[in-house]
Amino acid sequence: MNFLNPHAFCKTLFGLALACAFEWLATSGLRAQNPYQADGAGKVILLPDASSQRALLKISEGEIRQKGFRVQVAAESGSGSKDRALKVRSDIQQKFPGMPVYLTYEAPNFKIRLGDFQTFLEAAALCQKIRLWYPSAYVVEDQIWVVSPKKNRE
Q: Which residues in the chain are classed under CATH 3.30.70.1070?
């Protein structure tokens, strides 16, 4: 998978999300209700249960998350930490265009994390590249986006 090509990356994530959604739907609580229409056409109507409906809504809104991995590039704390974190985020965005960069605050640290990887090995491969600029970078387990949200993730 070519993570430096944003179009290929997005197509891969979208395809994976669709495959996961269809697999989930195939094994979820779908049940047949009134298998025959009133006109006798023999049509089957499948109605999802409440949890299936919530999941479908999340899929349509683009809010699918799961356990995965990211590369933590830096954690800044203390005076001026937000400005330093913003500078690191900007630098990472320039070095890895198209790769999602996350800036979060968990008191007392601003954390800068990169990527949405399903396997540790994918994250570790990127981590090796990042260590050229940020030697203290390491792989962390996190909730990743399988389908990116429509809103801006900054």
A: 65-147
CATH code of 65-147, in short, is 3.30.70.1070
Tokens representing 144 are 């990743």
Taking a C-beta distance cutoff of 8 angstroms, is the pair 67, 143 a contact? yes
Which residues does 122 contact at the CB level (< 8 Å), separation at least 6? 1, 69, 115
- State how far the Cα of 22 lies from the Cα of 24, in Å rounded to an integer: 5
What is the structure's pLDDT at 84? 93
Pick from 102, 99, 98: nearest CA to 85: 102
Q: Bridge partners of 35?
A: none
Closest CA to 72 of 33, 8, 124, 31: 124
- Are 6 and 141 within 8 A, CB to CB? no
Report the pLDDT averaged over residues 42-48: 56
Q: Is the pLDDT reported for residue 120 higher than 80?
A: yes
